[in-house]
Amino acid sequence: MDSKGMADAIPRLGALDHLGLAARAHGEKGAAGVRLAERRFLAKLNLRGDPNDHGFMGAVASVLDGFEPRIIPNTAVHTGRFDLLWLGPDEWLVVAADGAEAELEARLTAAVAPHGGTVTDVSESRTTIVVSGPNARDVLAKGCPLDLHPRAFAAGACAQSLVAKVGVILHRTDTAAPGEPARFELHALRSFADYLWRFLDDAGQEYGVTVMEG
């Protein structure tokens, strides 16, 4: 077997596979106040470029379904296929489905490189933990310094912050429709995923915790 065949034979492991979450996952939301899930293997690309360069902005839009990167701090755009999160004045995180990273990186690089933009695949460095439910904010408030009240952190907002001293990119992904519970995605380094999950699981016990499918 050649090296490529050996690589293909190695199973791909999620950051939290050792916790056996799939065996605990429920298909229904249930009555728990907190719902936790891991979204494994999402494609994540770090995008850098000059937002004042119309050529760069247009190049990004040509790849991401016509959407330009947001220039308003701590906001994100959802195109239907991609999430584009503001990280800094000239930096964004592009999130897409598992398996999209190679083609997306190639297309984005070809589009933005002539305008001085750069694209870096960071998919394997981070995993994504989802915190949702009626008490999602209560759980996050135990370890996050941000004000997550809807008036301060509206639907679609994103920010780089800490949860239980773990650096995360926090993204509110619910639509704020009447009756819809809050939903947050936490993009965290794989090396901190176990600790972060256990903190959230413990913090949610007083409200009831259900493990959901990612």
Task: Give the topology.
Elements (H helix, E strand, L loop, with lengths): L2 H7 L11 H4 L9 E6 L3 E6 L5 H10 L12 E3 L4 E6 L2 E6 L4 H12 L5 E4 L4 E7 L3 H6 L16 E6 L2 E7 L10 E7 L3 H11 L5 E3 L3
**Helix and strand pattern:** HHEEHEEEHEEHEEEHE
Strand content: 25-35%
Number of individual domains: 2
Level of helix content? 10-25%
Quickly count the helices. 6
Report the uncertain regions: none
- Spatial strand sequence of the major β-sheet: 8-9-10-7-1-11
CATH architecture heading of the largest domain: 2-Layer Sandwich
- What is the count of β-strands? 11
Classify the fold: give the CATH topology of the largest domain: Gyrase A, domain 2
CA-based gyration radius: 18 Å
- What is the CATH C-level name of the largest domain? Alpha Beta
Structural class: alpha+beta
Tell me the name of the CATH homologous superfamily of the largest domain: Probable tRNA modification gtpase trme, domain 1
Largest sheet: 6 strands, mixed
